[in-house]
């Protein structure tokens, strides 16, 4: 901790620097109001103001008017000849310099800090910060090239010279449209996101520190340095830096005024205020106003929790997607869908109306033509074709468009009803009955088959699969030579096995189901193997890899990771060029990474996760808004975060978690009401709480984890299945170890006991995945150690 006198000087310096943006005639009144009854602090700030003739210009590396009371300009700093004074203030001055060594020309900005405003401790911190800042390399961040001390022992930065204008001034001079203003801010946000990924907070994001150069490129300048750990106030030793002195009224988060705010949320507040300032002379649209309101919430926990979440909302606004800060109602989402696809919506609307009208007409005419067999068959075929189109083709076209999850479910259900009714007609052919069974399998995947986006109702999925199974068994008896019966049965069993793996945690039954399905496929002669046969085998491979993952069988994963991509080479040419083929080739790297992750080869795992991410990202760029690609991207980066966390690599942890969160946020927009995405988002929240704990912010981590445990309880009570109870118990285990790390052993013991109680009913039935079964059987020992005050076993021992 700093000494009392140092804390006092820091408080005085914060107010002193903040007062520079207050008109000279109002400064004394402002300082008096800020210091309240603390007359000693008030007098010290006023003393600093009296001693320095301070200009109202803000120091930065862009162009500003020169202070009328300029300090003496040195001739040279380092190897740079000083050509002009850019600006100055109470902290020091900024000069423009030209390289004077004769080897090449190079203009820079040089910021010199007056030593009289710094304690010896702050000067040392300044030196450390300069080294950290030099590592920031981003196209929208002004580079720090070098640094040192003048002959008068004044520290200085040598920075990239930005010949630009403050962000707000540029917007007005160029008379930019709303969308162009937002796109400029997004560029600034991307720079801040990069800084946060490198554990650096700016903490003084103002128009003067966000410049736009003559080419229209955004450049962030004057970065403060801090690790994003909000358990420490700005009066603590770790925050005694130049960053802690940067405090601009109107843009600084309110918690800064109380000495708090040593986390990334202060930058999010300032970005929201920047956005508001960019629209100062304009009417702010209501959705944009809602984004600003959330970003600048007084309570930090009500703000966007990451810069990436802020960017997603801005991009949603620009692209006419729903803005969740404004509304989450279905009516609003539908209105955004219409605006986004005005022409397409009209066409699609007419198409759906036409389909419904065609059904009605066809059924009516079918009934009227019952005495004319030829007419009846024609109308029968019309309805059959329309129903298939509804369930398969139209559904696939709509699934990449946001805001219509329930509409798609309704369309699929309606199509299924017609197919089911037609299959019961006396003249229904075996082919039609097969199509109906395939329709039920498709509906099962839509509603609740795990490991892909779904509506989260596994019970409907089970019912649909049971109906399809009965129909296929009848077909196997009545039409044994019908093509694709075995392939359809194998596809059904792949879906059943996936439910056994993830919802029932019955890995032995899943493995037996997969084995039986493979026998059905092997029985099909080569000449009878069409596209459906190859896709069914592909889904069995995928399901078996999921089973091995849940079992913790790294050897099987390693040996079979490439089966997905190798299997593609045997597909028919038309399938080899499909999106699913490219997806499987990319996801082979994911399974290799999972094998390394299970074996704790975290560095190797990260390398393969990055390969998977790279290929999946390229595919998503080609096929934007594809739910399955986004789902795979979210999982890839989420598990990669786990590998980085195991290495205690905070930079990579933040990077992967931000990527995973970004994909999940897109999925939530596309798949509203999708329970699987809700659970995935919950895991992202849990990962963030663990990252906070890793970074030492246990207070916030524990508070967030308690909320997650409560949410997991609600999900488990709504869906009382082994997998959900297992997830709930795991959240308690995470909370227990957080309690342990802050010596709250009684609370840790309680969380262990709750986890054990949740898992106990599923131990005897072996309805737990491998690592959770290990945890359930070892928890009694951990609880005993906890109650006896002994050292607790590690999470690794508990679950491995």
TrEMBL record:
Q: Which residues form the Protein kinase domain?
A: 80-338
Q: Which residues form the signal peptide?
A: none
* GO function terms (MF aspect): ATP binding; protein serine/threonine kinase activity
The main enzyme category here is: transferase
What EC number(s) has UniProt assigned to this enzyme?
Answer: 2.7.11.1
Q: Which Pfam families match?
A: Pkinase
Judging by the UniProt lineage, the source's domain of life is Bacteria
Provide the alphabetized UniProt keywords.
ATP-binding, Kinase, Nucleotide-binding, Serine/threonine-protein kinase, Transferase
Name the positions where ATP binds: 111
> In the UniProt record, does the keyword RNA-binding occur?
no
Name of the protein in its database record: Serine/threonine protein kinase, bacterial
Q: Organism source for this protein?
A: Aliiglaciecola lipolytica E3
